[in-house]
Amino acid sequence: MTAAARISEERVRTVCLVVLATVASAFALYWLAPVLIPFVLALFISMGLAMCVDWLVRRARIPRSLALPAALVLGIGALAGLGTLVSASVAQLAENGPVYAEQLGQLIDRAMSLVPSEWAFLVGDGSAALREIPVSTVGGLLASTTNAVLGLLSQSLLVLIFVIFLLLGGSGGPKREGTFGEIRRSVESYLLSKVVISAATGLLVGVTLGMLGVPLAMAFGVLAFLLNFIPNVGSLISTLLPLPVVIVSPEVSASAAVAAIALPAAIQGLMGNVVEPKLMGDSLDLHPVAILISLIFWGMLWGIVGMLLATPITAVGKIFLQRFDGSRPLAELLAGRFGEAEESKA
Fold first, then answer.
1. Could you tell me the sign of the dihedral formed by the alpha carbons of 119, 120, 125, 128, in that order?
2. Which of 19, 105, 118, 273 is the most exposed place for a label (fewest CB within 10 A)?
3. Where are the beta strands (DSSP E) in 40-158?
4. Which helix (H) or strand (E) holds 263?
5. Using alpha carbons only, how large is the chain's radius of gyration in Å?
6. Distance (Å, rounded) from C-alpha 106 to C-alpha 97?
């Protein structure tokens, strides 16, 4: 066997092993989701709280023994407040969901009645079918979202236990060298920028909708804050979420209805395309296609929580892949450096 044939056979064997390992890992991640989801959430939360501890120690000159419990109490209060806001907002939407779905169905009936008689044969009996779409879709979507949020909140005690142990385990201060130091710096930069941007986005969307007289304005603002952690897709969903409420609310004028969609879309575009790149730069070093694929992958495995965590998990995986010669080409592909990936293979 020639050297070229041996190299080709080795590459085929490596690809097959990678595929098998990926399938096995995906199955393990799906099967261990009840334990891994709280742990991964606690891992990222503890990194955020570690930044607070570091700030209290370095800037406020507070001893680490006091800064740790102070940051933990602050984190628990912030998470409890956020959980209460999110659960109340989703529950409020779910409670009003059937009413809005029914009103949207009536709006479809009125629209179908305006179809000229000579075009009636094109419509046929589609009115009843179209009327069922909003009722089932809106109700099902709100029900699934409510269940996901309530399920996540029900795991808060386990998340809190993990956070406490992770913070106590790093009581000597965060390590800034080596692979784990690079991971910590990358994730901390992402979390800080994303929280600030998402909070500003949610506040602006909520205030804008409230000034336009849209019902449940602050609920939509809270959801805009939460969904902004889902790259690309989240901003689109949060922009379209008020659409059924805006359409069926008689107190919202036509001009206000248009503004209720256009202004949040402009806010999302400004934050996502102007502010976020300036604040975050290229801290994660991930190609948009890689982010989209990771969003689909982790969403299939862990649902909404997986979509929220997809970007930082992929960034951590990329840093690990860069550390080994055999996996470095894959890390370059995740970063979008296709030419360098080919050179690494060669």
1. positive
2. 118
3. none
4. helix 254-270
5. 24
6. 14
Contact assessment for residue 214 and residue 246, using Cβ atoms and an 8 Å cutoff: yes
More confident residue, 5 or 35: 35
Q: List pLDDT tens digits, range 246-260.
A: 776 767 777 888 888
* Both tokens assigned to 47: 């990194």
Best CA proximity match to 167, nearest among 77, 65, 79: 65
Predicted confidence band of residue 242 (pLDDT cuts 50, 70, 90): confident
In terms of Cα–Cα distance, which of 189, 180, 175, 179 is closest to 322?
Answer: 179
Contact 335, 287 (CB under 8 A): yes
What number of residues does the chain have?
346
Of 328, 307, 341, which is closest to residue 152 (Cα–Cα)?
307
Q: Determine the Cα–Cα distance for residues 254 and 250; give it in Å rounded to an integer.
A: 10
pTM: 0.73
Structure-token pair, residue 262: 């256009």
Question: What is the dihedral angle through the alpha carbons of 282, 283, 288, 294, rounded to the nearest 10 degrees?
Answer: 170
**φ, ψ (nearest 5 deg) of residue 174:** -70, 140
Could you tell me the residue ranges of all domains in the chain?
66-174, 191-279
Give start and end residues of each alpha helix (H) in 214-253: 217-227, 233-240, 243-248
The identity of residue 217, as a single letter, is A
**Cα 260 to Cα 254: distance, rounded to the nearest angstrom:** 10
d(CA 185, CA 98): 46
CA dihedral 131, 137, 140, 145 (to 10 degrees): -140
Q: Are 232 and 292 in contact (CB under 8 A)?
A: yes
Split at pLDDT 50, 70, 90, the class of 90 is: low
